[in-house]
Amino acid sequence: MLLEVRDLHVEFHTREGVAKAVNGVNYSVAEGETLAVLGESGSGKSVTAQAVMGILDMPPGKIGGGEILFKGRDLLKMKKDERRKIRGQEMAMIFQDALSSLNPVLSVGEQLGEMFVVHRGMSHKDAKLKAVELMDRVRIPAAKERVGNYPHQFSGGMRQRIMIAMAMALEPSLIIADEPTTALDVTVQAQVMDLLAELQRELNMGLILITHDLGVVADVADKIAVMYAGRIVESAPVHEIYRAPAHPYTKGLLRSIPRLDQKGRELYAIKGLPPNLLHIPPGCAFNPRCPMAQEICRGEVPPLFEVAEHRESACYFWKETLDAR
Amino acid sequence: MHADHSGREEAREEGEKARAPLATSRAGSAAAGGEPILEVRDLVKHYPLTQGIVIKKQIGTVKAVDGVSFDLAAGETLGIVGESGCGKSTVAKMLVHLEQPTAGAIKYKGEDITRLSGRALKAVRRNIQMVFQDPYTSLNPRMTVGDIIGEPYEIHPEVAPKGERRRKVQDLLDVVGLNPEYINRYPHQFSGGQRQRIGIARGLALNPEIIVADEPVSALDVSVQAQVVNLLDRLQAEFGLAYVFIAHDLSIVRHISDRVGVMYLGRIVEIGSDEQIYEHPTHPYTQALLSAVPVPDPAAREHRERIILHGDVPSPANPPSGCRFRTRCWKAQERCELEVPLLAVPAVFRLTESPAGHDSACHFAEEKQVVPPEGLLEMPGETAGETETEAEGGPSQDVDGENGPAPSGSTRAG
Amino acid sequence: MDLALEEGTTLERTPGGPEGTGPAEKPHSLWSDAWRDLRRNPVFLISSLVILFLVIISIWPSLIADQDPLNCNLGKAQEGSQPGHPFGFDGQGCDVYTRTVYGARNSVTVGVCATLGVTLLGGVLGGLAGFFGGWWDSVLSRITDVFFGIPVVLGGLVFLSVVVSSTVWPVIGFIVLLGWPQVARIARGSVITAKQNDYVQAARALGASNTRMMLRHVAPNAVAPVIVVATIALGTYISLEATLSFLGVGLKPPAVSWGIDISAASQYIRNAPHMLLWPAGALAVTVLAFIMLGDAVRDALDPKLR
């Protein structure tokens, strides 16, 4: 297994109290596999990724426990510079907002080339050639002419391609993409998603795709982990989760999005609000919003039940949820 | 659902009356079934690009909106979709008089409101209100919820006497599904969805006829989006509101709209009823846009043809000549470069009864079904057994028996 | 990085409880939040205690000093500490303790009045420029640029040397004249930021007048940075007054000022360092107190923390 996150806990110390952002997350990604982590804001999906990357702001963040095994070694037990070497070379990250993730005073070529100068000890001249090659690879037209341009001279879609180029530069074995297409228009979104999927196949990388968009995930993911209030509530291969969700939250989400091929009728809406991480409801965190909630849901946090092979659901009533479709 | 809104009972009935005929009307240009309450004609907004600090020199023009026309009937919802930079938000701002158009007319009940000012403008503003995109910047953090929703009454004191305002504000909170006791709280004590409800309550305060909603749910979490969309639906039925609903999310627009206009680089490229646009699009841009929408169903991968556009939207400071979409269009020919296509029913469809016969600004308009017909894709929570077999037919097969497909063959002379 | 922030802020956004099920909490505005923060901040507590003390003794100096600062006895010049005269005597034989206490009044007066003047003038001019924009904004921006080019001390030497008055008003006038562009620039910037918020647009869409938008929506959201700058500036104005008085163009005898006393004492620094120590110490503590207060206020009002 390329990456295994085991029982990860992350909390934030705010002035109002301790916010439990991640409460025992387990997931794994193999080489060449795409895992989609799905959740709303505050579900802990980004925080988990930041913990894996080692870019969590500490303080206020604090890793409360767990292991992050990358190629069998626990990242949390590594020395700082050892970890820094892995970051960038072995794993890379793509952010939502490419404009603020790129340095505005350096040309795109310099930023791409820097990776090779720093990590591969190339000369600046060779690094520039490499930069052009990378830009070609992510299909930026006229790469040779544009290598000296600055980030603001590119459109949003092109900037996101540059971010992808930068992440791919050293051919890492794991890429974490945090809402990589959320800021883009639909037509550009499709281009960027396709590019990402293609490069991932080519380089046989593991890809963790963090998103709130059920649609984006459907086209590229192999398996999906749905997060709610810092826990994984359901994980499954992509086909099955859409066909037959085994957790009421996933089911509610799927039903609440309007469909392109359907008109009218009242949308199904999950009642209430995502929980406040300072006061996560006892038992199953989803119970106040859940149509199936019973006494047992308010008592104990449900464990992950095995629904089928490679399928888990953290719902006492997963069977009923599956059947009642 | 909520307490008494008997005072608004009348408005609701009116709204439903106005809404009913629209569902069946042939929506293209002017909506049948009554006078439109809003007519937009050749609306243009150009922003000068300037250089220099004290003495400004114009070095160019950003053509944000360049000739947009549409009608809005009472009680209907017109969706406007397009990618960022297409000018849809500028149109919204001009409708509520936050931007002054460079040219063109916006007629409210027959009267051009673009040049109004002072008292007359204030009177019109009462009837056209706006809901903003960002629930975090659209509420003044220094004011309580009561002050925010009550402000319309302070600006228009004739709407509600002082003594009644507090009760009215509480009623509004109730109507949008918030606890009326929250009246003394501040915006930062609410979540995004709740804040958007407050913004909607403010928009409703003056009893407007038209609400212009600029991406009202795109900043919200998925599970909260549905709540707000349902709220907007309910309010429309309850108060007979007409919506101009601006969004980049085509699924939500389809859900809420009676008619839809697709914008590209400052112009409407295709406009028609919801069915016409989504099931019988004839403009290549609309087709590409629809095919790019990710559908939350991995099974759809095999059933959908994806049109992936190349390149980016050109700059509105220097739009392409002729058809503005031609630089990204796979059908583009010389004619597209020379001749601006008009927004009208394309000649091939003019004599047919087909739903493909709606306004489309393309020289080579042709129907292409990119969204699988309803029921082909599976929905969680619905019977899934039979869809398996049905899906094998593929999207090309016509399922919509009533109207029939309208390929080029149907242009026989009449 | 910003993602961590985003997640972080989400936590704070969520209110006490969904749809009324949460505990009934008292409504609190951003100002009362800021006040709550300030009350817990030791920097604020210490600096405001010092400032309170300064204000009290500048209004009623006789509370702690029962002598007359102008009643001097040349015979005792430069003498050190003795009973009834804890800080000793200065070069003219005046009581250093009494003069240090009385000096506070002029320093505080100059600081407070100059700050008020600068804030009002700069705030109004800058705020209007930011709100309305256009040619007035361009002209104002150029004017502020010109003022930034004037060296303050040199300007003071030229401007104030022609004035013959022992009151504080010429000094205050001078500081206001040179100080307002700084505040105008801040006010302009924060008004422009506040103006772009959708709630201002929303008010406009409702038909609100310019005055209403300015007073109700823009001003309350734009004052925080101005308040912060003004508080910090207050300290620097006090030290500017002392500097000008030291150079002989600020306050002039018989006015009592720390600057004058420091200037006079600097000649005797070897024989009688106590003459310099006390007024200089008082000045340093005062300036520090105001700057610390400004810092504390900024921390409390910083929108990034809310």
Automatic annotation (TrEMBL), chain A:
A Pfam family assignment: oligo_HPY
SUPFAM superfamilies: P-loop containing nucleoside triphosphate hydrolases
Compartment list: Cell membrane
Entry protein name: ABC transporter ATP-binding protein
Superkingdom of origin: Bacteria
Family to which the UniProt record says this protein belongs: Belongs to the ABC transporter superfamily.
Coiled-coil regions listed: none
MF terms in GO: ATP binding
Keywords: ATP-binding, Cell membrane, Membrane, Nucleotide-binding, Transport
Gene3D superfamilies associated with the record: P-loop containing nucleotide triphosphate hydrolases
Membrane disposition: Peripheral membrane protein
InterPro entries: AAA+_ATPase, ABC_Ni/Peptide_Import, ABC_transporter-like_ATP-bd, ABC_transporter-like_CS, Oligopep_ABC_C, P-loop_NTPase
All copies of domain ABC transporter, residue ranges: 3-254
UniProtKB/TrEMBL annotation, chain B:
Organism: Streptomyces gelaticus
Family: Belongs to the ABC transporter superfamily.
Record-linked SUPFAM superfamilies: P-loop containing nucleoside triphosphate hydrolases
This protein's record includes keyword NADP: no
One annotated GO molecular function: ATP binding
Biased composition (Basic and acidic residues): 1-19
Pfam name, any one: ABC_tran
Keywords, ordered alphabetically: ATP-binding, Nucleotide-binding, Transport
SMART domains linked: AAA
Region of interest: Disordered: 1-28, 367-414
Domain annotation ABC transporter: ranges: 38-290
Record-linked Gene3D superfamilies: P-loop containing nucleotide triphosphate hydrolases
Record's protein name: ABC transporter ATP-binding protein
RNA-binding recorded as keyword: no
CDD domains: ABC_NikE_OppD_transporters
From TrEMBL, chain C:
Keyword Lyase on entry: no
Membrane topology: Multi-pass membrane protein
UniProt similarity note: Belongs to the binding-protein-dependent transport system permease family.
Xref: InterPro entries: BP-dependent_transpt_permease, MetI-like, MetI-like_sf, OppC_N
PROSITE patterns the record matches: ABC_TM1
Cellular localisation: Cell membrane
Principal cellular location given in the protein's record: membrane
Region annotation (Disordered) ranges: 1-28
Annotated keywords: Cell membrane, Membrane, Transmembrane, Transmembrane helix, Transport
Cytoplasm in keyword set: no
Protein name: Peptide ABC transporter permease
Pfam families from the UniProt entry: BPD_transp_1, OppC_N
Domain ABC transmembrane type-1: residue ranges: 104-294
Record-annotated membrane-spanning stretches: 43-64, 108-136, 148-180, 222-240, 276-297
Biased segments, Low complexity type: 1-24
Gene source species: Streptomyces gelaticus
